[in-house]
Each structure stands twice: as C-alpha cells, then as structure tokens.
Amino acid sequence: MVFKLKILLYYFGFLLQKKNLRDRNRLLKLRNKRLKRFWRILKRSDYYRFLLKTNTPLHSFPVMNKVTFMEHFDQINTAGIKKSEAMKLALEAEETRDFSPILNGITIGMSSGTSGNKSLFLVNENDRAKWVAAVLNRVLGISLRKRKVAFFLRANSNLYNSVRSMLLEFRFFDLLRPVNTNLILLEEFNPEILVAQPSMLKEIARAKQKGEINLSLKKIISVAEILEPDDKTFFQSVFNIKIDEAYQCTEGFLASSCEHGTLHFNEDFLIIDKKYIDQEQKRFHPVITDLLRVTQPVINYELDDVIIEKKYCPCGNACMAIEQIEGRSDDILRFTDSSGKEVQVFPDFIRRAVITASDNISFYTITQVNSHTLKCFLEQDNHQVGKNIREKVEKNLRSLFSKLSIEGIMFEFINNNSLDRGTKLRRIKNEYSTSN
Ligand SMILES: [Zn+2]
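Above: inputs. Below: predicted complex with zinc ion.
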C-alpha cells in the first residue's frame, strides 16, 4: 500500500508541476530544486563523494558510458550492491524467465543492449514509484476506469510489473514467443492500450490489415526501437489513431510525445548536454544526468543515440524537442572518399534514398558489411521487391555516394532478412566499423 501511495504522491507532484514545463525559466528553477535534493543523496555514493567535497561542478564530473558505468558499478551505486551478485541474479532471472530479482529491496534489471554487452540497472522502491508516476503522467495517462495494457517486451522486470493493479491491468507479451501465438493472445486479451516496438507493431498492423486480428485499441505507444516517419504514417492509417512515443532506455525515461506527436525530453528531471558529432552542429549524443534515480546515479552519461533537435513545437512545452532519433553512433555508415578521407553517412540519408525510390517498399534493411559493400534487403507486402525497385534504390544510393565522393560501392541484394526474435530491429546498421 505504501508503494501505491508513493506513486500517487509523485503523480500529483508531476501534475502540479506541469504548468512549469511551459516556461523555460520556471522549468529550470524546478530542475534546480530537484538537483539540490539529488546532490544530498549523492553523498552516499563512494564514487561521487570526493567530487562533492571538492565542489566540482556537475558538468565537470567524469563522462560515463556503458563500459565505465559498469566498471565503477560497485562504487557508483548508493545501496552497497556488488556487480557480481547483481549480475548473477539478473542472469538467473533471464534464464528462468521468472522476472523478479530483488536484492535488499532493490530491483535489478538487465539490458543486453543491441550490441550484446549487458548492463545492469538498480532501482529502489522510490525510484520505481517515481518512474511509474512519470510514465502515468506523461505516457499512459490516468483514467478512473480500469484499462488493459498489452506490453511487448524482450524481458519483463519488476519495474514494469509495478504499474499493475493501479487502474491498469498490465499483461506482458514475451517477444521470444512466436508472433502468431502472441497475436492470438493479444486478441484474446483485447487491450485498450498497446505498448510495443515498431517491428512488432508492424506485425500487428499487417494482421489487422488482412482482417486476421480484431482489436479495439484507444492508444498505441511505440517504444524501444526508432519509429520511422513512414512507419508511423502506416500505423496511423491502419489503426486509425495517433501513435504516441516513449523514449526510454536502461539509463532512464528520457522523452515522451506531446499532442503534436513530437518527442520532448523530460528536462524537468533530466539535465541534457549535447555532444555534437557533426560539423554543422546538427546531430548530437545526449549526455544525461537523471535527477530521479538515486540508487544508481546516472550522471553525465553519454548515450550512443544520435539525436537531431527540433527547434520549435507548437504545443508550448519548453522542454527540448526531438526532430528525430537517428539510431546509434554505430549505425552511421563509414566509407573512404576518393581523397582517402573517412566520410560518415548518417542513417537518415540512407533511409531517404531508399524510401524515395518507391512507395511500394514496405520493409527494408541496409547493412554495411565491409569497407565497400552494402547488404540490402527490400520487401513489398511480405514479398521481395521486383528488379526495377532494386535498381531504383541502387541508383538513389549511388547518387548519394557520388555527391560525397564515395566510389566503388558494391550492392548485395539478399532475399532473406533473419532478425532474431526479441532483438531490436535496426534498419540501417554498420557491422563493419564502429569507430567514432
Ligand atoms: Zn510538442
């Protein structure tokens, strides 16, 4: 009961603060208040304590990434939990698919990430209550009627279970189950709210289009993978509702979409520094500090994601808006131009070259497999595309490359796209070079 009360308290806290999100100065004032509270808790972290003593400003704290964050796991967390014991418990839970690893009252979550290296996250009851309250406030919304939520996930966690039994009935759909089984179970459950990644939404949308599944959805929230604009349009036309988005990762609840469909960072509790990765200062890696998480402080953590900022959204939210999440830094294709210089080709350019080739392309993946070869998979309504579409895609890509003085690229068109169930779909990826 205490836990539910906490959720309610935090929920009303977010609700009351909502008006402050519309004015940049008030937003920053609110965040400073949260930062002061965060500062006090940080004293419990062996890793950060000495930095506090020397009055080091937050932006000068060490920049973390997945590797360093795991390396200093034991010292960073404020709960005295050792990485070895947390990892053991998380792996056991993954193995048995019994998702309830709790150690000294702390929930342990594990994310394999898309590159296969596992990272652990720790949340205590307060962290969880705040997370649930934020998700209820920004994504699910609250209603006095009990609503059913279908949640497609690679692995369940107590973090997600905690939403259950509020005014929501949550059901977890395991992505490792065959798609058809999940579709049957989904129809049986008949949810009002569907939370899933675009690759799963695509399966559901196709089944609906063919009349194989009947659903009465009121809300769809796209998570975990990048929602491509053309997919968003497709889903909206099939389901006939607006598609919402939540940008959430192991490191925190980062952003959610407003009524105009724009993702806004949760800047009232996130401090976001932009580390630009291109000369035009258009694309950046967010370096985040999450003021809500106290068990495992996330400070100056550089995410791999490549973000393009949106300068204006008519909704009036003063939090930074996102034009596009372009994928991760290792999704950027890298070639050598005719003068021998390395050239980065951002996923968005590849995407445009592909989708503008034909309206009939319903699915594609483009993978760089070596310094000069792209493996391409193109699909039209579950079938391979014809030769003319392949040629158009190749022509578009060649013209893009020639503008960048990249020559001699080979195209290998493949007939099968083997995506392991449960892994995240990355349409454009670089399997060859991941250097920055
Ligand atoms: Zn907006």
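The first helix runs from residue 2 to 17.
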